[in-house]
């Protein structure tokens, strides 16, 4: 497919393999497959950031996604600019910011085929026409529409766009009628046009040549809930009484209107005996009105028609026909379009066009009333729940669609409708009341189905989902904005979590990017997976700490356990006593950003920092109170407790430029400061800012231990939503002093009067490791096995070396063995089957256990490491290092004497270096001796730096 080509620099092998399982299963090199086949097959070579932001944009993350989209529109690649144009324009259009939408969508079309190769449907074209029309650029709209017709041919969406332009031009009725007729020209349905007159055009829709009547057939009941519909009900009823399917009963349920709705209905009933009117004594909502009508139906089928819509005269015939022809399906859906009264197109969020499925007007077999029951009694969205209930009970083929892409109804958009009101806006189907409601409904469906025996038939499945007209309690929770006030919700684990004050949906999605990306129900995810994995439900409840305090097993869901305890007390940050409790030493609050199940550099650096504080080196002895984000690693918790007066567990989100700091977190930290009265707040990373905000509010000095190089770590900058320059500016403003782990970090901070350099320490036992390589060189990657650590490059290098050794006929027992040393990870799994010469050895507990498995260590990080701990540890163990020329590692090795520095992101260069070392075994021993000597020198220099650094700076920094 033209336009999808990714260069090798743009190509993302981990993403490619995780996306295309067939390539992963075949064990193929991702780049080679993409270059030879994938590109031609239309496969993408990597993620498109604008599409990721599109997903986030509608799920509560506008403040973070929109600024990055603007940056992509300005500075992104041609591909990113094109897709960002579509994403940004669609969002702007949903807010009726048409100038912004018009400007942005031009970027999509300016991207040549780059945009259309990824977004191949009509949506951008339809949006472009609408935006240009709304901005008065009718010539632009017409040209876009001409090109769309060239690309897509005749289609209802494009005929509707023609109407959009005609309305903007004040075209005469016959022009609009011609475009309306175009919609149905190839469908076999009657064409429609406009009646003469001065009424709005939607109220003058008609079939100039009425379709042939269908006089024989079962009775169809049409329920019309109506409230304050005096102005539109006449059009609705005219559309129904003109239906080709003549055997109808039309039940108008007046929901206690205070205008003349009932009068209009009763007058129509006098003219057509098929119309009946039911008047409710008090306003109850559309679905209670529907249920009133449903209880009174006499037909073999029933459907619903909103009181302000108009239907094509063959709509009912078209929906009944397939159900008569096939006894399998239980319902039939049609499609519709939303417009203003003037027939200008009106859709709050443009997807692939103007026409979409009309779930509010399903045609349903009447026996479904007895089998699955009535609509839920909520204010909105119950038609969607009913649709999914039918699918859950009877299977994915239970609801069929008739004339997809062709509007069989015209829905009238009114600003005062529930659809566009703020509390229940359709946008809340992505995040908000509608989404919470549907998530809970789908969970109810699935839980009821899973509770049945596998042999349960359709009757049993339907009965388990039966919803009576007047339930004594709700079967699943609904947000207060949607539910009636007279119903209680049945008790369930789902109801407990969704109703807990400690479950924060937005916080949970922010903390768990995989849940956000998968777009799954966060409550269900927490109940089924997250709680068992100790994924904290909110800012003030730590799953792992509660599990530890209550000694829960691994299958327990901590928040559920807490909420179901009759004696539960208010939750505060969970506290564990430390070995230094009661010490007369000064106190410092020390905040960690990582306390994972496996121990890596971040955890080790915290332990060293606590030891330095407790030793009194370069200043008063301090008894730290350590604040960890979790207690998932019991041994690590114990190691921290040995070095602390107390350990508090407080979940924290990383900083983000466009996300406010959690007020709950800041309040909790301020309370800690007032309780412990520390001499300073230490933060072991730049990624946390809540402790700094709290410290500044309480007037407490703050110190940041900087272990990152943002200027050369674009991924970190993206995670934090900031530039390296912006990050530096912010942390300089937020904190009082800094401790840098390398001169490179100190140089980046560039404020020498506020910075002390304290290089990281390594385990001295590494210097005693023996080095005795065998015939097969063991080449290791010691890391967390995530993409940014170069795991895909490592596998690619292994393949290159295997191919070269086979070509050169290297004996099998002398060929290199590649070892992935570290935990399992999603990125590693995405790589699929490993080459025959590669083994995943798993997580090694400590640097000695990791380094001793290797003869040669590769450092392939795709970001600039600020210290290069793995490089120094490998050299201390006498293992030469081959690293990418990026960050600090190249400054630690001596190229050609202790290892090799190769061009960044060049696996072939690394493979050549590996082959060179493998062949020259005598040289390997010399490299080993030089590497250990170099590591010893660097460690001695670091120790001298720590002991002899500027005393004024040191004492202030510790």
What key phrases describe this protein's structure?
958 residues; alpha/beta; Serine Threonine Protein Phosphatase 5, Tetratricopeptide repeat; Spore Coat Polysaccharide Biosynthesis Protein SpsA, Chain A; Rossmann fold; 4 domains; 9-stranded mixed beta sheet; 8-stranded mixed beta sheet; elongated
Describe this structure in words.
- The longest helix has 28 residues, at 921-948.
- β22, α34 and β23 (817-821) form a beta-alpha-beta unit.
- Residues 948-958 have low confidence and may be disordered.
- The two termini are 59 Å apart.
- The chain is elongated.
- α10 (138-152) packs antiparallel against α11 and α18 packs antiparallel against α20.
- 49% of the residues are buried.
- It folds into four domains: 13-185, Serine Threonine Protein Phosphatase 5, Tetratricopeptide repeat (Alpha Horseshoe), CATH 1.25.40; 201-415, Spore Coat Polysaccharide Biosynthesis Protein SpsA, Chain A, CATH 3.90.550.10; 574-757, Rossmann fold (3-Layer(aba) Sandwich), CATH 3.40.50.2000; 764-943, Rossmann fold (3-Layer(aba) Sandwich).
- It has 958 residues and is an alpha/beta fold.
- Strands 3, 4, 5, 6, 7, 8, 9, 10 and 11 form a nine-stranded mixed beta sheet that branches.
- It contains 41 helices and 27 strands.
Set out the fold topology.
Blueprint: H1 13-19, H2 21-26, H3 30-38, H4 49-57, H5 62-75, H6 78-94, H7 98-110, H8 113-118, H9 123-134, H10 138-152, H11 156-168, H12 173-184, E1 193-194, E2 205-206, E3 220-226, H13 233-241, E4 248-254, H14 261-271, E5 275-279, H15 286-295, E6 301-304, E7 310-311, H16 315-325, E8 331-339, E9 356-365, H17 368-371, H18 382-394, E10 399-401, E11 407-412, H19 433-450, H20 458-464, E12 473-474, E13 488-489, H21 493-498, H22 505-511, H23 513-518, H24 522-530, H25 543-550, H26 558-563, E14 574-577, E15 586-591, H27 601-615, E16 622-628, H28 634-642, E17 646-649, H29 663-676, E18 680-683, H30 690-698, E19 702-706, H31 714-720, H32 724-734, E20 737-740, H33 743-749, E21 755-757, E22 778-782, H34 791-807, E23 817-821, H35 826-830, E24 838-842, H36 847-851, E25 856-859, H37 869-876, E26 881-884, H38 889-892, E27 899-902, H39 907-919, H40 921-948, H41 951-957
Parallel strand pairs: 3-4, 3-6, 4-5, 8-10, 8-11, 12-13, 15-16, 15-18, 16-17, 18-19, 19-20, 20-21, 22-23, 22-25, 23-24, 25-26, 26-27
Antiparallel strand pairs: 1-2, 6-9, 7-11, 8-9, 14-17
